[in-house]
Each structure stands twice: as C-alpha cells, then as structure tokens.
C-alpha cells in the first residue's frame, strides 16, 4: 500500500497538527456571493492546491489531511476546487488515494469539485465512484459533488513524451473519447495545455502550437482551456504575445491562465491576462506546487497573492492623515470581484498546510497578513486589558 511508507509517528504528528489547528479555525460557512459570472469584473479562481500543489511533494500525504485541506478551502469561500487526480500512482505517487479523499470531503453549497483524468481508465474510476448505490437499504455517504473533469496535453512533443509517453497529436487522439464520454455522463470538461511559453526540453514555444492545441481541445468539448506557463518563465510581454496568437482561433472567454511563479512574474502575468480579457485563473494556496516533469519549476502562484492583488486595496481603510483642508479624497479602488473568498482564512490555511509539509508558506501576501496579525496581538498583549 502506498501510504504504508508514512510512519505511525509521522501520522500522529499530522493528526496532532490538524487537531491543534482546528481549535482556532471556525467551521461556519461563509456568506455566499450573489455575484454572477456574467459580471465583467468577476474573476473566477480555480484552487489547484490539493492536486497540482501536492503532486510534486517528496513524501506521501494521508488522504484525511488532503480532505481537510479541501474542506478548509471551501470554508474560506473558494467555489472551484481541483480535488485530485485519477492518474496511476506509479507515475504520480502523491495522487494515490483520490477516491478516499473524495469520500471524506464535506459538501458545501455552490462549491464545485473537479478531478484530473489522464485517460479512459481514470475516467472509469471516477464514474464508478459517482454512481449512486442501487441498494434501497444503503446508508452509504452520497457521491461527492464532482461536477467536472480536467484533461491535459501540452504544446510540445518533447514535454508530451516526457509526461505521457506520446506525441501531442497522439495525446489529443487519446483524449477525444475521454472528453466525449465525460460529456455524455453529464460532466463538464476542462482542458489544460502545458508549457505555453517555454518547454524544459525543447526551449521557447511557438505560440501557434498553443493556438492549435487549444483549438483542438475546444472542438472536442472543453468549455474552458487553461494555458499553463509550466516552467514559470513567462513575462507580461510573452504572455500577451501568446494570448494574441491563441485568440485568433479561440474565444478569449474560454481561456484561463495557469501561471507558475518560478521567476516572480506570475501576478504580473495575471494582470496582463486580465487586461487582455481573461477572467479565470488557477492558483494554489500557500504557493504549493511544481511539476514532476518540469525540472526547476517552482510552485503555482499563491492563491493569497492573487486575491490580494485583485482586492487587497480594500483592506487599507480610510485615509489616516487629511490633506489640505481635510476634504476626503476620492481614492481609486480595484474593480475586481472574486466572490466570497476570505483572504485572512486563506493565509491561515496556507500557513497550516505548509507547516504540515514541514516548511513555511511561500505566499508573500499570506506572510504579510500573518505578520501584521502577530504584531497586533503582541501590541495588545503589552498594553494589557483596558479597565
């Protein structure tokens, strides 16, 4: 069994960490946003931490910890969560146990879950789980609310061979019947295109390759195509150039951005893509992530950093020192709406899961929020209770 490599002492530590954290973590559900996705200023964030964020970890993580991560993310207000992958554990060991994870997660209103399925076998495994029990006396937990599957390919043959042992064209041929069967089963299908800027094996990527692969995914039924800067080499200029080419044949409204933060440009790339018209972005709490087939690539852009970049100015409060005659100044404020996401809770989650993994969160916004909270608590402690 894959998880037998986790020692009993390690498991006890993880459980202790979980229980301790839960004491200070509210389980009340957030007020749901009534914002419609038709709002031109609404930005959908797809949380990929439980799948893309954990797939490159060196040690196995027990399914109860993964499920707790997913539940906390849902409580924080995230409405689109990628919960795992039905890929062979031989190739991605960390994704073993996805069926157990799905059985453990709770149901939250207006929260949709997706899973990655690399092939027909992966889809078959998912559909078996989603099939309701036919026994009238069954007391089994209802199937999880998985509403969509994700399929993936890449923009270069070199990366495709390294990832799935087949060319890009061969990959698309394999995926077509998977997409068709998922759609027939009532699931939405989302497509991923890896290495849209640079490939770790073949170098700079021709944007026309990204365009053609994206078009193929849309034609096979993908309602959305996420463009992955897998190596994190992208810059605002290269992202815009790639999007300009893809948009020649694919509607911008069907495109999403998936930017790794290897060189610290992910947030800038998101702002560029927003300006271009994209309204959906993948992110990973605490900046978790990396790609086992992209040597040197660091984590996905941190969800906390994305939320702060889009809405953080609302945390500033009123102007503290009046100017001139004291008349209040009209200050510009971000127009973006990310729904009911609670940034403070996200920062807590990023710190918690990073601690479970034995390191610090890489989210800059998360670190800053937690540091400010610690300073405020220390100040209040020194001042003492007010009489």
From TrEMBL:
Family of the protein in this entry: Belongs to the HMG-CoA lyase family.
Domain Pyruvate carboxyltransferase: 43-319
Designated name of the protein: hydroxymethylglutaryl-CoA lyase
Known EC number: 4.1.3.4
Catalytic reaction(s) noted: (3S)-3-hydroxy-3-methylglutaryl-CoA = acetoacetate + acetyl-CoA
Family annotation (PROSITE patterns): PYR_CT
Class of the enzyme per the UniProt entry, highest EC level: lyase
Chain intervals for the UniProt region annotation (Disordered): 368-387
InterPro entries referenced in this protein's UniProt entry, alphabetically: Aldolase_TIM, HMGL, PYR_CT
Domain of life: Eukaryota
Lineage of producing organism: Eukaryota, Fungi, Dikarya, Basidiomycota, Agaricomycotina
Biased composition (Basic and acidic residues): 374-387
Alphabetized UniProt keyword annotations: Lyase, Metal-binding
Alphabetical GO biological process terms: ketone body biosynthetic process; L-leucine catabolic process
Organism field: Suillus luteus UH-Slu-Lm8-n1
Pfam families: HMGL-like (PF00682)
